[in-house]
Amino acid sequence: MSNVLTMEKKRKESAGEKVDGFLTRNRVVILSVFLVAVVAAIAAGLYFGLRQSSFKKGLAAIDSIEYTFTKDIDSADAPALVERQNAAMKALEPYLAKKNIVGVRANMLAAEISYEKKDFSTSLGYWLAAIDCQKNTYVQPVCYFNAASCSEELNNNDDAAKYYDLAANSKEFLLSSHALFNFARVKEASGDNSAAAVAYKKLVDEYPYDNWASLAQSRLVTLKAEGLIE
Fold first, then answer.
1. What count of other Cβ atoms lies within 10 Å of the Cβ of residue 37?
2. Is the pLDDT of residue 6 over 60?
3. End-to-end CA distance of the chain
4. What residues have CB less than 8 Å from 184, skipping those under 6 apart?
5. Residue 138: DSSP 8-state
6. pLDDT tens, position by position, 152-198
7. Which of 66, 68, 76, 160 has the highest count of CB atoms within 10 angstroms of its CB?
8. Distance between CA atoms of 45 and 154, rounded to whole angstroms?
9. 123 CB-near residues (< 8 Å, 6+ apart)
10. What is residue 139's three-state secondary structure?
11. Exposed, middle or buried by CB within 10 Å (0-12, 13-18, 19+), for 25?
12. What pLDDT was estimated at residue 51?
């Protein structure tokens, strides 16, 4: 209250009786607004603090599951590997539906395990679920790239091309040139040589010093020599 009186006195000295009268008549409202703002700030701090704490616990749990799954995995025989895979998938279940980075990590690990089991349809579902858990994360192009790989394994070249294209269009993605080459390769395998040539040419133009650009140039020469493109 003393702080309010001091503030009121300063305002009176600087702005006169009119302002002083306003503060006197409305001090309850002003104090209420101030208290609401303070409570809101405290509540927000607690919310984000708890939220961050929840994220840390969730990520720590995923790390623990991954560590248990991968520790000395090279020495595990086939039955032991299956047991580890099943145990990891079971442990991941509570985190798969999380709509945040925890859900992203959980679905990515589940996707990797499913891919190792050659269950490409299930793996594809987890890669796409990881994207849905939190949009526009730095791992999104990784998920698209791997979703494309699963689609290829399932002989679905249309979806493979779509996902490779989405991965390639992320300039921050370290494998964007690889994704673009794969997009062109899948288009070529599907018989769409015109679209493949456009993608190969784009790769050569945008990544002139990349190894994938060299391969793209080679494919352009071959396609032209075979009369498949002009």
1. 10
2. no
3. 84
4. 195, 196, 197, 199, 200, 203, 216, 219
5. T
6. 999 999 999 999 999 999 878 899 999 999 999 999 999 999 999 99
7. 160
8. 47
9. 111, 112, 114, 115, 146, 150
10. coil
11. exposed
12. 52
Mean pLDDT confidence for 98-121: 94
What sign results for the dihedral spanned by CA atoms 165, 171, 177, 178? negative
CA atoms within 13 A on the CB side of 175: 17
Tokens found for residue 21: 């009268």
In the Cβ-directed half-sphere of 51, how many Cα atoms lie within 13 Å?
A: 10
Which own/partner contact pairs does 26-34 have at CB distance under 8 Å and 24+ positions apart? 30/4, 31/4
Q: Cβ of 67: how many Cβ atoms within 10 Å?
A: 9
H, E, C per residue of 166-227: HHHCCCCCCCHHHHHHHHHHHHHHCCCHHHHHHHHHHHHHHCCCCHHHHHHHHHHHHHHHCC
- Residue 26 CA: distances (Å) to CA of 2, 11, 30, 164: 17, 14, 6, 62
CB 188 within 8 A of CB 196: yes
Longest dimension (CA), the chain: 93
Among 48-57, 63-72, 106-115, 149-158, the least confident range: 48-57
- Which CA distances in Å does 226 have to 51, 156, 193, 220? 59, 26, 11, 10
